[in-house]
Amino acid sequence: MALLSGKTAVITGGAQGIGLAIAELFVEEGARVVLGDLNPDAAEAAAKDLGGPAVARAVRCDVTSPSEVDTLTRAALEAFGSLDIMVNNAGITRDATMRTMAEEQFDQVIDVHLKGTWNGTRKAAAIMREQKSGAIVNLSSLSGKVGMVGQTNYSAAKAGIVGLSKAAAKELAHHGVRVNAIQPGLIRSAMTEAMPRKAWDQKMAEIPMQRAGEVHEVASVALFLASDMSSYMTGTVLEVTGGRFM
Fold first, then answer.
1. How far apart are CA 206 and CA 201, in angstroms?
2. How confident is the model over 159-202, as pLDDT tens digits?
3. Signal sequence span per UniProt (predicted)?
4. Helix count (H) and strand count (E) of the chain?
């Protein structure tokens, strides 16, 4: 039997990159998915490619808005009758050194990553606790473990997601709801491949496995945490880094 047969998952930032890879794998494993994304056209196209309305729906969602996240989670109930898995993946970068970073750049990243994850966790938990079951998967980053130059905003937000996930896991465990986090390292994507060659080579030199990760390798870990394969795990943080910064 497929690992997610009969389950419904909501994925923020689901129209591209890691979010889309997670959606693709979830559908392969029997799930219905609702893709939340700030780009409604990209989300609609992704939902169509995943199989259309019978298995995938698209909802425009700004994760910094509690009401829009509420609309997103409710869309899962209206379309498919349940909300079993919530993947809080939406994110942005506004990199700059602390000396040159504008306050607006700091606030934007904190709002999308940290507040956005809080909104998603909170709204999903309200539904899941009534069902007495559910799995929430939050996307942190290796930057939240070690801190990266030019990312005081991003590193702070991603570290905050770890603390948020652990606190939420403690609050929700007795309701049958699990909350776990993933910390990806250097994952090959349009964004990372646009890095200057020097920056890419420096990061590669730090990876014992001597290669970047692929989006499907993050998706596989999300599948593990979303499925009953991890039924006795909550409040954990899994690194997908090729061994970087062990």
1. 9
2. 999 999 999 999 999 999 999 999 999 999 877 888 889 989 99
3. none
4. 10, 7
Q: Which CATH architecture has domain 8-239?
A: 3-Layer(aba) Sandwich (3.40)
Residue 113's φ and ψ, nearest 5 degrees, are -75, -55
Q: Using only the alpha carbons of the chain, give its radius of gyration.
A: 17
Q: What is the mean pLDDT of the chain?
A: 97
- For the record, the structure tokens of 131 come out as 């069902």
Integer Cα distance of 134 and 85 in angstroms: 6
- What pTM, to 2 d.p., does this model score? 0.97
Which letter does DSSP use for residue 26 in this model?
A: H
Strand, helix or coil for residue 174? helix
pLDDT over threshold 80, residue 229: yes
Strands (E), the chain: 8-12, 32-37, 56-60, 85-88, 134-139, 177-184, 237-240
Active site residue 154: yes
- 125 CB-contact burial (10 Å; exposed 0-12 / middle 13-18 / buried 19+): buried
| pLDDT value at residue 199 | 87
**Which residue type sits at 196?**
P
